[in-house]
Write a structure and sequence with these properties.
2 copies of one chain form a homodimer. The first copy, chain A, is α/β, with parallel strands linked by helices. The first copy, chain A, is built from 10 helices and 10 strands. Helices cover 32% and strands 22% of the residues of chain A. In chain A, the strands form 2 sheets. Chain A has a 6-stranded parallel β-sheet. Chain A has a 4-stranded mixed β-sheet with strand order 1-4-2-3. The A-B interface holds A 35, 40, 122, 126, 129-130, 132-135, 158-160, 163, 195, 228-234, 236-242, 244-249, 252-253, 255-256, 259 and B 35, 40, 122, 126, 129-130, 132-135, 158-160, 163, 195, 228-234, 236-242, 244-246, 248-249, 252-253, 255-256, 259.
Chain lengths: 259, 259
């Protein structure tokens, strides 16, 4: 059983500030924890501890045999305290991360996403899942983008957050450097149809904030503005597409053009 | 000010069962209520009453002049009771709907979505928004699909739920009839690449439940199984795409092929 101070320490990781301070975060639920046990995460992360109900431990003796030194039994009440979910799912893993690993210098033939202040954890999780599906090489996150190591976000992203490389950057500075040699794309209402534009194999795709779109100060770096054409019967609605679905459609267009 | 029994009656509409009983539902927030005041909803709906903070009424005198007989002042406490949001946004509208209007008999040159037990309100809202963007003619909802008139869902769908025709059906029976004359598409792991398949102008696209996909019993009606190819570096992950993003990519493919 865990001590009160240990529980308190784990619970603090529900908050982004403490995750950044401790370089630790939580992964919840049978499916995702089993992915972690099988090593399905990038080398910036490490599995530190597992907190599980006795039933889960009994059902998974073979799998956790290798991890028994770091596997701790918790009861339902403690699991509730550790978990961010209303109905916690048997097991939670404590992971650590190296904030300095995985520095990517973009290359011309690779595909990148650069996210400008994405706010909604569900959207960011979905974008990571899409990025993994479409083989995006790295996701660059501007200041003001929600923390990807939020447990709910890891869940909504089906664990893709643990496998797709990402980096936090000053997006303005970063684009000012890399837009000189790598094509930069972004969706705008006055862009060129994504169905007609000839897309390069690699490049940087900028995705804007859910309500404000791409920051005006970044527009000058986006040398290939794109438009997802609208086929609505009533032209006024909807005003826009959801950030994650727009990302999916644009990534699909990049990949369909190279096969 | 509203009476307690009136408040209770309005609050009951947070629950799907009472919405179906009363044929009424709520629309929340300045942006969506203003769309309703401008008449941006289909003719199966009618605007019945508006509940607003005095500040909102004062700021929108010109707009609500036409509606002053059905506009009621509420204080912050009452707004909190009416609203499903943590931080309610000034105004809520009460709408009615005609459950029997808008019976669509599918035609071969029109595009339809048929949703098989979509559970997540956010996903269903996003699918309605996508459907409006891509000019889908009607969305057919199986039994077991979440109620589209949930106030949170209307919000996440940017009000598209109020404009895109939809109908609740017995999906199995419905497909057994219409699959005889209209092409039926659906995403499967062993389908034909959506990038290579020649897509018809119209048809029915079946979208499956978030965790279980399309029900096995429906498979026989889907004469055009589709696949969204995966470009992941590690083939095991992610296992699937989110239902709403997959819908977006497939709709985009249908529309790009006819322009």
């Amino acid at each position: 059983m865990l001590s009160q101070s240990k529980l308190k320490n784990i619970r603090s990781l529900h908050i982004s500030k403490y995750r950044a301070q401790e370089n630790k975060f939580l992964v919840e639920g049978d499916k995702l924890v089993k992915e972690c046990l099988s090593g399905a995460f990038s080398n910036r992360f490490a599995l530190k501890e597992i907190y599980a109900l006795q039933d889960w431990i009994d059902d998974n003796l073979l799998i956790i045999n290798k991890f028994k030194d770091i596997c701790f039994h918790v009861d339902h009440k403690q699991l509730h305290q550790i978990s961010l979910q209303k109905n916690p799912n048997q097991v939670v893993a404590l992971m650590s991360f190296d904030p300095d690993l995985d520095i990517h210098s973009p290359e011309t033939d690779k595909l990148y996403l650069a996210l400008d202040r994405i706010q909604d954890p569900g959207n960011l999780g979905t974008i990571f899942r899409l990025a993994e599906w479409f083989g995006v090489d790295c996701i660059f996150l501007s200041e003001g983008t929600v923390d990807p190591l939020n447990p709910k976000l890891i869940q909504s992203g089906m664990g893709s957050v643990l496998r797709v490389p990402y980096e936090k950057i000053d997006l303005n500075n970063w684009l000012s450097v890399h837009s000189k040699k790598i094509p930069v794309y972004g969706a705008f209402l006055d862009g060129e149809s994504v169905y007609k534009k000839e897309l390069s194999k690699g490049g940087i795709i900028v995705i804007g904030n859910e309500s404000q779109g791409i920051n005006d100060s970044l527009r000058k770096y986006i040398n290939h503005p794109l438009l997802i054409p609208k086929f609505s019967n009533e032209q006024a609605y909807p005003e826009s597409l959801n950030a994650a679905t727009a990302t999916g459609i644009i990534l699909s267009e990049f990949k369909r053009s190279v096969i």
